[in-house]
Amino acid sequence: MPVALVSDLKIGEIILIADIGGGTGDFVPYRVVKCTRSDFKLEQAGAATGSLCGSQLVNVNFLTHLENKAGKDDDPSLSFDQRCENLGRSKLDVFELANNGFEAIKKEFVPRSIIPRYVNIPGVPGNATSKWEVEITSNLMTYFYQPVVDDIFSNILSMLKENKSTKQIVVVGGMRKSELFMSQMTAKYGNKYKIKGDVGFQERSTHVVAQGAHLHYDNIETQTQEPDGYFGVAQDQEFDEDLHADVIIGRNARRTRSQKQIYFYPNHTFESFGKRKVRRRWFPINDKKEAVWKRLTVHPTDEYISRQVWWTSQKMKDGDRMLTEDGKQVMEHILEWGDVTQRCLDWKALGFEYSYFERSKLESKQVREAEKASIEDGEFEREESDDEGNEDNGDFEMGLSNGHSTIQTAKDEENGEDEAEPVVPTRSPDEIYALTSAEEEDIGGPPEVDFMEIEANEGRDVVGYTDDGRYGASIAVYVIWTKLTIEPQGANVNVKWFVAKPGEEPYDDEGNPNPRIMDIQGVGHEGVIELLDTKFSPYARD
């Protein structure tokens, strides 16, 4: 037990805990109720408060500066968008690389240093700019920090006015490692209060709505509360009559055995590849589980993957509705927990490539319309023969690795007679072939294709065609798995990203980890993302 801390305090005095992490700052007063060498006990002395004033806000200030001002000194003619274009990178990619470089500088920053540091943003090989160097001086770093520090001090001052018996301010969370912040903290409050930034205690959060960290020693007790909130993510789920009865029209009406048809509220359901899906349902992530896995199917044209965690004070179970009756917005008691976390996708770095092909002897417009119809209306059967008497040769390859489709010859009734539409030419395997590098060069590089989704055997594949229908491309839709781990008492939510082929699950039938689920790491992604390193207070935005 830290004897010095006990000797500094008396029964009835207040310790203010300032838990300032990456996303938020949480401020909680604790009163000393027992204070002996063998027994030290604290209880919460008043209402907690919190606001968005964590260390990540310093990064946000840097990125805002980067987009609006940086680079104008060395070349005022270049806008931020032009910089990104010259680097051969998307804005999201540039932001991610810049943020990573800035974070490394921020951790080592020493106030009043006369030596500037640089954030290096590398360009893609072969582009106009090999790298973008952004200078970070001591004054500029202080400029990024100061609004965040001022917000923290405003919260601390408010708590001190309400708790006049405060004797110590204990800073926990990532901000306590900042020499700039702790030096300003000592200068502002050190004459009247004892400031402790690292006293060797274990940080532990027991109240998810701005209740802060509590001191925990071998023989010190704290009066704590159980976590008062529930965490989850939103997901579209396959319809289950027992789980999603609320989306059935007339669900309370008694149906006879002959009444098998079920009618759904359109704002809450949709059809996907012949299956009824229910929109935005609750999927809990802190339901007494160590971790949960969430599947996210991504399209090859997607530039990034994202994840949003939600919080509610009301207990919700798996499959509960998150949307209002009209299906237009999330219900009021369900609040965003922090910001949406996004990560850029680099399919080439992940080892996935497009397979381009040419379609010959096709009336492309008719083929395209018929294929879209086959997707929207379900799988059709073709006539056994066409108007010229040619025999059907069965299902034909669509350029997909594991998917087939068929086309139906439709008949319209015109002037009282059935008149067959022109038969859409079919494709045989020898009419589709992968383009070689030389052939790509002849047509000016890989064709620009418009992708559309087609269901395959396991998971989905994607096929796309050029506007004229002559060229196409296909690629498997790989699955991104996110592993969400919520730390004890809801302190942090950690997200780890994995990639897998369609049909692969995180665990096998015996519950063992699947080695074919690949950790996305070392390819421009962070393997573990700290979504929030402290609690997020929904009330802070009032």
Question: How are the elements arranged and paired?
Answer:
Elements lengths: L2 H6 L5 E7 L4 E11 L4 E5 L4 E3 L4 H13 L11 H8 L3 H17 L9 E6 L8 E6 L1 H25 L3 E7 L6 H11 L4 E3 L23 E4 L6 E9 L30 E4 L2 E10 L7 E6 L6 E9 L21 E11 L10 E5 L4 H14 L18 E2 L6 E2 L5 E4 L2 E4 L11 E3 L2 H6 L7 E6 L4 E6 L5 E6 L2 E8 L6 E8 L17 E2 L8 E5 L10
Parallel strand pairs: 1-7, 3-9, 7-8
Antiparallel strand pairs: 1-2, 2-3, 2-4, 5-6, 10-12, 10-14, 11-12, 13-25, 14-15, 16-21, 16-24, 17-18, 19-20, 22-23, 23-24, 25-26, 26-27, 26-28
Mean pLDDT: 66
* Uncertain spans: 1-7, 198-227, 251-259, 361-365, 378-433, 453-460, 522-542
Considering the protein shown, what is the CATH homologous superfamily of the largest domain? Answer: ATPase, nucleotide binding domain
Using the alpha-carbon principal axes, give the shape.
flat
The CATH class of the largest domain turns out to be Alpha Beta
Summarize the main sheet: 7 strands, mixed
Region (Disordered): 367-429
Biased composition (Acidic residues): 376-395
InterPro entries: ATPase_NBD
